[in-house]
Amino acid sequence: MKNLWHIAHDLWQAAPAFRLALLYLALLTAVALALPWLPLAYGPNELDLEQIYQAPFEWGADAGKARHWLGTDGLGRDVLANTLYGARTAFAISLPVMAIASLIGLTLGAMAGLYGNRRLQMGRALLAALLFGLIPIAYYGIYLPALLSSQGATYADFILTSIVAVLVSLVLVFVLTTLFRRLPLLNKKTFFPTDELLLRLIEVQTSIPRLVLILVLAAIVPPTLPALSVLLVLTFWTGTARLVRAEMLRIRELPFFEAATSLGFTQRRLLVRHALPHLLGPVLVAFSFGLAGLLMLESTLSFLNIGVSTDLVSWGRMIAGIRTNTAAWWLVVIPGALLSLTVLALQTCSYYVLRSLQNKK
Amino acid sequence: MASFVFRRLLLAIPTLWFIASAIFLLSKLMPGAFGSAYLAQQEAGYFSRSDAASREHSYRQFLKTTGQDLPLFYFSITSAALPDTLHRVFPERDRAFLAKLSWQYGDPDAATRFFRSTKTLEASLSETERLQVQEQLYTIYSHKDAAELEQATAGIADQLSTTKLLESHFLESSAQLLASSPGYTYLFPSVQWHGSQNQYHRWLSGLLKGSLGTSLRDGRPVATVLGEAIGNTWWLLLVSVLLATLLAMELAILMVRRSGRIWRSTLLPSLFLLDSIPLFVLAMLLLVLLASPAFLQLFPVYGMGYYSAYDQNWLEQLGQWLQFMALPMICLVLANLPYLTNQFYQAVVAVAGQDYIRTARAKGLSEHRVIRGHMLRNALLPVITLLSDFLPALVAGAVIIETIFAIPGVGRLLIDAVLARDYPIIVGIVVIVAVFRLLSHLVSDLLYALADPRIRTHAT
Fold first, then answer.
1. Minimal CB count within 10 Å: which of A177, B1, B96, B185?
2. Which contiguous run of DSSP H or E holds residue B410?
3. Where is the ABC transmembrane type-1 domain positioned along the sequence (chain B) (predicted)?
4. How many beta carbons lie within 10 A of that of residue B15, not counting itself?
5. pTM for the complete prediction?
């Protein structure tokens, strides 16, 4: 953590581009947070049908009304308000999604890198029993709650099913383990292929391009924001996981880590105290690169009008407005410039951090 | 070499099977089969003479021909509180009603009996009788607690003749339903075995025979629909990849020259800038600037030009095709240029420091010959694998570009299919894309092995 702070400090003094990018991001965040208190004349979804397709800087002399500083779109919605609120939406979606995706990627990648294919040992009987234990978990933990919520059940039912889920699967695993131990085939130790499993999972997921996967899944789930966020998390964790796994494999061979291992520390302590501080830098870089990608993807999806509802204020929706009137250049230029600048700032930041991390090695 | 290829293909099959199955099963879990919206139109239009019954009949026919009335998988695990025959109940509205009944009263058998008797009763009613009990029927379909149901059945019993009620066993089944009480039956699972008569089996065996099913929208085979669309996408991708690769290579050569400092200091930042503009913004910008009457109208805006004369020779046809494809291709090339150029540049710079380059220079070879003759061949080697990794971005780009410029290709087909929930088309496209990706991996491996003898001996 301290290390990262030093890097940021050094970069702030050495690289003007980094300083500029960071300042821009801070300003954008501040504006997006303070938006409800800013004196904007129009709301983002407010229609002004008397002044449609008004170009910016050519304000009509309508005395009674406030000006549309940056013009309006085909339904008279104010471009300025939409652009600012669009920034708010973009960050409100992509920040939590990327945070959760990074967390998942960090956990899975670190596990895979630490345990590899032949470090986590467990009995075959237990492994087989755990696989069977997934069935009651799926039934009581996923299927029944989904059914309950569709039939409008009370909280008591949900609590009951989760208790049953835990109890039944525990009992099943326990009984099956003792049973399986009697079989000669299963009464042996085996290695749990953590690394292999993660790599296969990533391979399966990345064999379909991300946009196509999201488009396909968006046809299946209802177009709501939580559903879209889950989809994005499910497709964005792979990048971080891959990076963390590679980094963990490198750290595992370093002298200080071997020393810690030979001192007999627990795996947990090894992971949290010794490996995690070294993983934070790469994860941060992956986070901001991923955030830039997410911003682009989110606006692309809302441009295509897939996976989001039409009343969601976003940059993509405003840019889509130009398809009905190609003369309205400001509908592309203003939100497009803001989107590109934000992506540029994020990429600049991560580029500099990445470079100084590499120089340190 | 052959065994290497064979092993790769064999490993690819499980991945492909897993993805296609997952998408297929997921798409079927979504409530609301294709066409149920058509059934939901209660009001018969002025011109259409179809009433609710005939619509329902044709809907059932549609489900039967497309195999959608079969169970989904070989077996199913449902809650014991739901009737076993639930998957056979159509349309979705009735299914949800039966599920609700059975859930509410905790007795699937009584719920099924009551449901059937209500349906028989409803079918036997004449127009006037229907009007009489309309309110009660509505209550039955939307009731919240048992008291409401009791009241509604009593109301129906008052209004209608007893023969009809007796014929449909309406009253006794409702009494039976009301007598049962919800317990914890829902905690018990009920497992059913459906055998090979299920949708997944049908789909998978069709897939193995090479058939991808038929489109739900127009009933044409998915392979035909895809075949019509794939040509445009293929040429769009191929030409733009070739252009982008050539351009990126030339740019990298410009930058790596000793006199290329000015290129380095201008090109690299501008490529970085270009990289941060999303593809759809870039495409819309170019569309506004170069194809709209408000600015410069150099290119036609949308589509592929449908008014082509038949007497054109191939040169004119190509000219027209290029006219429409130029702007989309420029967009794809520009969008992919930063990444490619950067990779090429890195590769060339890595080679430029090698000893044999110094030797070549020391021999007095011209800069041109050093770069083209000695550097490029070695630098290109790592780039070969890159081209296959690059495919996802290309496919995603094609989806966006085809949508914006209204090119009838696979990408636009995907968007249309997603908006219409035409699952056979979606699954077909996923299979095609995954196969394409696997093949490109294979081809790049082969090329790599061909280009580098060390790998060839290592692999076999």
1. B1
2. helix B410-420
3. 230-444
4. 17
5. 0.83
For chain B, what is the mean pLDDT?
Answer: 81
When CB atoms are compared, the residue of B184, B293, B392 closest to A210 is B392
pLDDT in tens, B371-398: 888 888 788 777 777 777 777 788 889 8
Q: Which of B276, B296, B342, B425 to probe by mutation at the A interface, max A CB count within 10 Å? A: B276
Per the DSSP assignment, residues forming a β-bridge with A78 are A72
**Residue B12, in any domain of the structure:** no
Tokens of A198: 């993660």
Check CB contact of A220 with chain B, cutoff 8 Å: yes
Are B392 and A209 in contact (CB < 8 Å)? yes
| Domain covering A2-54+66-118+194-360, topology | MetI-like fold (1.10.3720)
Size of interface A-B (CB pairs under 8 A): 143
Residue at a domain's end among B208, B234, B251: B208
Closest Cα of chain A to B288: distance in Å?
6
Residue B312: what pLDDT? Answer: 67
Shared-domain flag, residues B194 and B267: no
Rounded to the nearest integer, the mean pLDDT of chain A is 87
Task: Among B100, B418, B427, B439, pick the best mutation site for testing chain A contact (most A Cβ within 10 A).
Answer: B418
The phi, psi pair for A152, rounded to 5°, reads 70, 55
Q: Which domain holds residue B100?
A: 36-208
> Per the structure block, which two tokens stand in for B460?
């076999």
Q: How far apart are CA B372 and CA B362, in angstroms?
A: 16
- The minimal CB distance from B418 to the residues A218, A326, A344 is found for A218
pLDDT tens for residues B66-87?
Answer: 777 788 888 888 888 788 777 7
* Bridge partners, residue B221, by sequence: B214
Would you say residue B385 lies in a domain? yes
pLDDT of residue A221: 79
Query: In this predicted structure, what is the pLDDT of residue A61?
Result: 57
Q: Per the structure, how many domains does chain B have?
A: 2
**Which two three-digit tokens encode residue A32?**
């997006």
Q: Give me the interface pTM, i.e. the ipTM.
A: 0.85
How do residues B417-443 score in pLDDT, each as one tens digit?
Answer: 888 878 888 888 988 888 888 888 888
User: Is residue B161 located within the same domain as residue B226?
Assistant: no
Contacts of B150 (CB under 8 A, 6+ apart): B174, B178
What DSSP element (H or E) covers A168? helix A155-181
B226 and B204 fall within a common domain: no
